What does this fold into?
Amino acid sequence: MLRYATPLLITSSLVLAGCAKKAPEELPPAPTGTSQPTAPPPSGPGYAPGSQGDFLANTMSDRILFDTDRYNVDAQDQVVLQSQAQWMAQHPNSRVTIEGHADERGTRDYNLALGERRANAAKNYLASLGVSPTRMTTVSYGKERPDALGSNESAWAQNRRAVSVVVQ
Amino acid sequence: MAILGLKHMKSWFVAITLSVGLALPAQAQLTVDVENTAADELTIAVPGLTTPQSNETPAGTTAELGNKISDVIVSNLRSSGLFKPLGRNQVRGISFSEVTAPQFPYWNGTSASALIQGFVRSNGDGKLTVGCYLYDVALETELTRTGFVVDPGDWRRAAHKCADSIYSRLTGESPFFDSRIAYIAETGPKGNRRKRLAIMDSDGANHRFITNGQATALTPRFSPDYKQIVYLSFLDGNPRIYVYEIGTGRQRLITQSTNPTFAPRWSPDGKTILYSMAIAGNTDIYKVSAQGGQPTRLTSSPGIDIGGSFSPDGSRIVFESDRSGSQQLYVMSANGGGERRISFGGGRFATPEWSPRGDLIAFTKMAGNFRVGVMTPSGGGQRLLTNSWQDEAPTWAPNGRIIQFFRTTRGSGKTGIWQVDLTGRNERQLPTPVNGSDPAWGPLLP
It folds into this structure.
């Protein structure tokens, strides 16, 4: 439980300055039990409820992919983001940072702007599903942090992404 | 008008030379046309600079410095692609008395058309005087002479200034060797690359890392007085623009906004910083006083407006925007407004940089490969200068005659800094201690 409560405390005090007074009420009454409004989905061994591991296990994916130079959220992306919004509803204290990325086949400055646009597209869609914008931040890494390391269409397709990362 | 003046001056010099030595065909070679792609390199003999008396200095003896300065002059001239220098290993040394009285019969027996001689003298006050003379070998005449007083530790600058005076005299172009470059030094694998801000002389010497690489650093630009560098860092986890003071090592954010900021550029007078900022995903271009204060928003399209570069007179800005559906180049007033697209003809265009001469805009063109090219400020005369898998981010030499950019290798993603002249013929990689990207060439040193 300590492993669970500590990250929440840090999150509340450091990031959610405006919610600092509320946060303690939502913390589990140590040392047992939780005050989650809905039962958290079953979590497997190796990760704590509300963690990125939990998020990965109980959403369709942590990321959506984009076409070259595009930033629209298509039908497939919507299903992924819906599963993320559902998980966030089940973990009302959770917060995410949405990382926007571009492939290497673009110029540096433009790719930073494009990554920002992609991260915001994901954020806006999650907000339209009821996730409070105050629980989401965005950051663009442009082409600086490729996930797939090849220089081919398949690698570039994997790198044009917006990834939701649970803030611990 | 300045360009016209220079050209006239050049032909005037040529005319003088011709009138003195009509019978000698060799003298006609003694001007170098930077725009003639078919021209042969001009052969120049560069014996080691001599010294009236070899004295110890903190940077070595004056005799040693004479040799080192001569080596830098050789390296500078060779790198321009216009000259074939014969260094001190290929020609004989000279005595101090020869500096102003060249042994022309000897030099006429070599393949050299021109001859650079000089000396290094230790002054009583601890400084050095470096003298630099250029001769026409066939005509047996002096073409130019220059002298510099420098601290011994600045001997390289004397060498660059000597090379600059010779380059200018022979080409009619403005000098550029005595300048510096800021860039991003890259190490580590593609998936976890460490990117550090670094600076060096125009020939790669005096290299120095500025940041330690814990935060990714990108897109630096020297202030016109070389006292500050504006660049992007992920220092607080987000992309933000900082101004770094070289003297103190202090740095500050250019704006207190929590929005991400990128693509910083100085105005030619160093009083204004141009930058781009994303608000709720939409990026527009702003400018702010280099001292801080209230920013001015310059663009407001729903597309990505980013980058930008001032015309040398500071009146206009060229920038890139995808408002038409793909990245293209636009010119607007330096106060915003009057936006007009200048790039056409297929492909995407990015990273525009206005030449310090004002006559051209360099860019990255993306149509299959990424290539560096130039066009006029009205969009005419588009020419591509490089052809590789990924060349991007051009930056101009102070004289507007050479463009530096970085080249990425497909697969490994390894980067290197390259330069090319406006003919597209003289392309070479700049030596850097580690891989390099995002070069930014500063103006001639003050």
About this structure: The longest strand of chain B covers residues 141-150.
